[in-house]
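Students often ask why inverse folding is considered easier than folding. One informal answer: many sequences map to the same fold, so there is more than one right answer. In these notes we will look at a single instance of the problem. The structure comes first.
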């Protein structure tokens, strides 16, 4: 890194601090880095760098490194870095901070939160699952409903399944399992519970599984892969990170961080709406019509033509 150049007024520097998944996570980190690289090639910035966090205890010092070396824009990813990002914005007022997937209750002039509508992502997953299910039974395996973002994902899933049922005159049953009684120490890390919960839903006849909630969700997707049923991921491209996923994972739905980073750099003074959503490429065996349906649905959700009806918080 040529960090010393970043103190110059004619050099615009941006730095990305990843979470512990690293820059090649097939998800938001990788997408954000691609956004910075594209922005640099377009001349929107002069220098782009990243630091991969090896441990959650690294977050604060990694953010501070960029701030103390004159970086103009510092991007962090994930709710796990929310507090560190907010503190850094207060400590380093000359830098602009972008917090991806970090809803903030407190306001700071130099902090731009980027959030993606989990209810819309869940809705799209539920609609897709209902559309491709042959048994007309689909399932979602979710971390605790006590976390608002998880609640929105999985109630969105129910709403999407209902939407397709009403559109097609069918009666798709959506089975949703939350890890509400699990060990708090295993939050987002309970792969065994996710695996067992998915197995139970599959035994009840579900032939499509959606999962949300880190490693807990990956346990559910592994169960779907082993059972030979279709699955839909979120948070990152699960089809690229799970072994033998090509036999099961239809797609993954997550935030389009690359687009959002470029928008901030192009239009820095404009307010940022809810982030754009995208999906991972479908395997070749799926028709173009299915992908077109997803495109149309996501556009309708983004524009507000279709509303999920899911509350921001669990009632």
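Output (designed amino acids):
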């Amino acid at each position: 890194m040529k960090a010393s150049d970043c103190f110059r007024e004619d050099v615009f520097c941006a730095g990305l601090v990843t979470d512990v998944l690293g820059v090649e996570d097939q998800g938001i980190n990788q997408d954000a880095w691609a956004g910075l690289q594209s922005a640099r090639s377009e001349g929107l910035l002069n220098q782009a760098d990243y630091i991969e966090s090896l441990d959650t205890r690294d977050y604060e010092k990694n953010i501070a490194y960029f701030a103390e070396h004159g970086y103009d824009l510092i991007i962090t990813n994930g709710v796990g870095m929310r507090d560190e990002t907010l503190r850094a914005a207060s400590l380093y007022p000359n830098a602009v901070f972008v917090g991806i997937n970090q809803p903030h209750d407190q306001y700071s002039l130099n902090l731009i939160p980027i959030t993606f509508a989990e209810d819309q992502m869940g809705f799209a997953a539920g609609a897709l699952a209902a559309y491709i299910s042959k048994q007309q039974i689909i399932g979602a395996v979710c971390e605790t409903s006590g976390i608002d973002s998880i609640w929105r994902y999985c109630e969105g899933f129910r709403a999407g399944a209902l939407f397709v049922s009403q559109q097609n005159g069918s009666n798709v049953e959506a089975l949703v399992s939350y890890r509400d009684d699990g060990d708090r120490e295993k939050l987002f890390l309970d792969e065994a519970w996710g695996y067992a919960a998915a197995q139970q839903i599959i035994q009840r006849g579900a032939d499509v599984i959606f999962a949300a909630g880190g490693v807990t969700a990956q346990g559910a997707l592994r169960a779907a892969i082993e059972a030979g049923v279709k699955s839909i991921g979120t948070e990152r491209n699960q089809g690229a990170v799970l072994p033998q996923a090509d036999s099961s994972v239809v797609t993954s739905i997550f935030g389009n961080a690359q687009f959002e980073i470029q928008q901030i750099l192009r239009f820095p003074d404009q307010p940022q709406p809810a982030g754009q959503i995208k999906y991972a490429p479908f395997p070749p065996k799926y028709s173009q019509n299915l992908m077109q349906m997803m495109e149309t649905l996501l556009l309708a959700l983004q524009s507000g033509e279709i509303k999920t009806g899911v509350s921001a918080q669990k009632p």
